Amino acid sequence: MWTADWWWEIQELLPRGSTLAPIIISTDKTQLTRFSGDKQAWPVYLTISNIEKGVRWSPSSRATILIGYIPVTKLEIFSKAKRATVSHQLFHDCMRAILEPLCAAGVDGVKMDCADGFVRRMFPVLAAYIADYPEQCLVACCRENSCPRCLVPPKRRGEPVNSTLHDPGETLQVIVDQSQNKFPVKFVDQNLRPINPFWAGFPHCNIFSCMTPDLLHELHNGVFGDHIVKWSTKAATGGDQEIDQRGISLTSKWTGNECKNMEKVFLGILAQATDPAIQRAAATIIDFIYYAHFETHCDESLARLDAAWAAFHKDKSIFLELEIRKHFDINKLHKLKHYVDSIRSRGTADGFNTENTERLHIDFAKAGYWVTNKVRYTRQMTVWLARQEAIYKFGTYLQWAVPGYIVNPNSTNSDNNELEEEDDAVPVPHPQPDDPDSDDEGELDGNMSSPSPLPSHVPKNPSFPRVPVATIVSEFHAPDFLIKHDDFLESNSINPRHQPDDNSAFSVYKRLSIPLPQISEVTSHIVYDTIRAVRGEPGKLTPKGIIPAKEGRFDTVLVHKSPPGHQAHPTEGKTYIP
Prior knowledge:
38% helix
């Protein structure tokens, strides 16, 4: 955030020698019961932008802390007409009680000890508020057919228009006038709610500009998963049946990871099955999603992000022509307009993704609930969390005081990495030329597709150990297996100890994870892509019943065959392997 505009604008308003501490607040109601029940928790998280975003969202770094729980109650003592208003006001009253110290600290500053040993006068200022769309409207005191950032009319949310942004001072005055029975016209025009907001009086705080993009709910699960996929499926020749043959519509519930994986292949699914205008509209949304995910932005990338948004509005009319949609007055679609402004003001969108807080729920809500007796569980959860924090602090002290002492890591605090679904994965070393040990009994454990020095990963145990070559050729549909095997050994200058033949046996895996080339603008982390090859199985009649047949699953692989150092078109020298 320190490279964005907002930080420097606020820094100029503070006394000389002051240090700004931008506060990031996140709230997200979560379900505690696993299969049934209505037990919920509403945690409030806090972190600061002085900490690098990759550190502050890492659970093991403990840079994001839990500062309270919002009560989750049905308020059955109130009538149905009053229940919503009372519930909204209860939220704001609780948030005011939690964040009230920020008011005085943001005006006068607070002397704090910093990690480098210096004492600085810090000015904590609310800079960003991470929440999904319903909670953003709750914080902004507007109804859920409105934008929490601007004054766009509900019936014009689907148009590429520039609307006036909310003004905190004006909004507060309109709410006050409404509470005094003056009934201002703007109260209705701006779709406001009669609530006393918690953010009133916060110094240097524009709560409306604090509403940052939500990549998970707005893009992956929202515009793409809930809208583009459904609209394109209706537009496909053959409809659901055609999409079923291409492998996506049978999934009942899409998670964020599934939507991300679908985005990689969705245009291929639409090819020759939909109108070219449908494909262009889907392509512009996917372009927008990938540009929005950049961890580093420049003027050119932001211009392309804005161009993708404009291109979608140019091509979206095809959905009206096919009578798939009657309008585009959709909140998540409208909010794409504010991404560029938010990134310029507060920093890249990946630093404010609600996907980060979803991971924190495990440590700060669900783990604590699972150890309670499920009765008045909130108090028990806070006690359990306090004890866990005390244990961690004491362990950290022992690690500092006792040479060689190592804190026993808590499994619930482990970071969520790209190989989470492969807990038993082991690295596969690269084959070394002229290494007699690189091939053992006709098997070669090497990186088959990536020139990256990082190792690929396969499961610890093969799915099919010691499969004869004849079976690989016939049942795994690899008639040129030995030929390609020999070509690979020759191209890598590897001399096998034993030359494989039709009588040799190989271990066969269903899954291989390879590291993708690192692109600094996209991510600073190592990203693995999983390639799956699962053969189909016929139905079986067993003593316990009938086991239905399973279809095979084979991921498409794009193999680069150009010689090293050769500069060519991105698709030149590539072979598609279905």
